[in-house]
Design brief:
Helices cover about 5% and strands about 60% of the residues. By secondary structure, the protein is mostly beta strands.
Length: about 300
């Protein structure tokens, strides 16, 4: 089916099991909340051969919001998204921002993102609960995207008020979301503005992320890498116009066997925050196999 210029979310199964969505095309670029497909607290879902061109997120995974979502307690789980195209949209595939029941066990493969603001987007808030746990993605191609990866876990003050501020840290409670266990491999980025833009939650950093086996062409490297723990980039070819990586309270970060092509043939790593530690660069070379100088600077 084709859905044209609908007024809000388009395909939205809620509390369903054994769902197949196949061959759906959505064009809703002029609609502010024109999500393409929203999976809400569903189990065993297959999405394939779909094309989404949206005014908001394209493929979206949700699991209830805040206290009401915790009360219902139904996750979105066991989801496969494959052989599909995301065009215009805030996120090609987005986890959240409603995450109370937890979004878990998602497998994405053989998908294309062309013109989306972000390729893979993780989105929640301090008061949304749950989180995301278990993401596997491979064989992706991205063209003309804003950010290849986005973690947007705090939101902005216009919608979230003081909860959007990093400090003061809040006590971890049942509404604190945890985003973890993400593995993305074997992908190509033909053109992007940024490789990664990540803003986590200081009291519970997003964690256990592995990005490997990729070819990435982007204007800039890391817009931000904030409040993250156990994060690895391995076997990646990166080509960028700028040479700066910004890290705020990053813990246990490893960049291993990364080929980086930048005009200066050096990488400037700006590290900030009292928790910033164990940030390692191993086997960093340029396309000619020569070592790239990594310059670390602690920012107060």
């Amino acid at each position: 089916i084709n859905i044209e210029r609908s007024v809000l979310w388009n395909v939205v199964p809620i509390y369903c099991e054994n769902v197949i969505i196949r061959g759906v095309t959505v064009n809703s670029t002029e609609v502010p909340s024109g999500d393409g497909i929203d999976i809400e607290s569903c189990k065993n879902v297959l999405i394939e051969y779909c094309t989404l061109n949206c005014g908001d997120d394209c493929f979206t995974l949700k699991a209830g919001r805040a206290e009401d979502g915790l009360r219902i307690g139904r996750p979105t789980e066991n989801v496969v998204i494959r052989h599909s195209l995301s065009k215009h949209g805030h996120g090609g595939i987005t986890w959240g921002s409603e995450t109370a029941g937890v979004i878990k066990n998602v497998y994405v493969h053989d998908c294309v993102f062309n013109g989306t603001r972000a390729g893979l987007r993780f989105k929640t808030r301090r008061n949304r609960g749950g989180g995301a746990d278990g993401v596997w993605a491979e064989r992706l191609r991205m063209i003309n995207v804003g950010n290849v990866f986005t973690w947007d876990l705090l939101g902005n003050a216009f919608y979230m008020g003081e909860l959007a501020a990093r400090y003061p840290e809040r006590p971890v409670n049942r509404l604190t979301p945890d985003v973890k266990n993400i593995h993305v491999k074997d992908f190509i980025v033909e053109s992007a503005n940024w490789f990664i833009a990540a803003n986590g939650i200081p009291e519970i950093p997003f964690n256990n992320v592995l990005i490997e086996n990729a070819e990435v062409k982007t204007k800039q490297l890391f817009r931000s890498l904030n409040d993250v723990k156990d994060f690895t980039v391995r076997n990646v070819q990166l080509s960028a116009e700028k040479d700066t990586i910004k890290i705020l309270d990053g813990q246990n970060l490893l960049f291993q066997n990364v080929q980086i092509s930048v005009p200066s043939n050096r990488i400037h790593v700006l590290m900030e925050g009292k928790r910033c530690n164990n940030i390692r660069f191993e086997d960093i070379t340029n396309k000619d196999g020569k070592n790239v100088k990594v310059v670390k600077k602690k920012v107060k």
